[in-house]
Amino acid sequence: SDQMCKPVGSSCEIQLESVIDLLGPEPLAVDELIRQCQGNVAEVQDALLTLELEGRLIRHAGNRVSLEMG
After folding, report:
1. Taking the CB of residue 44, how many other CB atoms lie within 10 A of it?
2. Looking at per-residue confidence, does 17 or 4 come out higher?
3. What is the mean pLDDT of residues 38-56?
4. CB neighbours (10 Å) of residue 66?
5. CA angle (65 as vertex; 64, 67 as ends), nearest 5
6. Angle between helices 30-37 and 11-22 (to 10 degrees)
7. In DSSP terms, which residues pair with 66 in a beta bridge?
8. What's the CA angle centered on 50, arms 53 and 33, to 5 degrees?
9. Which residues of 1-14 are buried (b: 16+ CB within 10 A; e: fewer)?
């Protein structure tokens, strides 16, 4: 379970849901993701780190990311 995002329903957890909704198999620029989430950089980066630690995020060249769909 995620140790960074507490309590349940916090903006961090909501941001994680937003990031998952926006990401897919196609790489998306992190800056664009932050803009679309309308969140602060730290919250979006926390969400990305959480996904990365769970093995669900792929980082690409050019500061782009996508979800692991396997």
Report:
1. 24
2. 17
3. 91
4. 15
5. 160
6. 120
7. 58
8. 120
9. eeeebeeeeeebbe
H/E stretch holding 34: helix 30-37
When pLDDT is cut at 50, 70 and 90, the band that residue 5 belongs to is low
Confidence of residue 12 (pLDDT cuts 50, 70, 90): confident
> Is residue 46 exposed (0-12), middle (13-18) or buried (19+ Cβ within 10 Å)?
buried
> Which tokens is 53 given?
């630690």
- For residue 24, report the phi and psi dihedrals to the nearest 5 degrees: -150, -160
Per-residue pLDDT, 2: 46
pTM for this model (two decimals) = 0.79
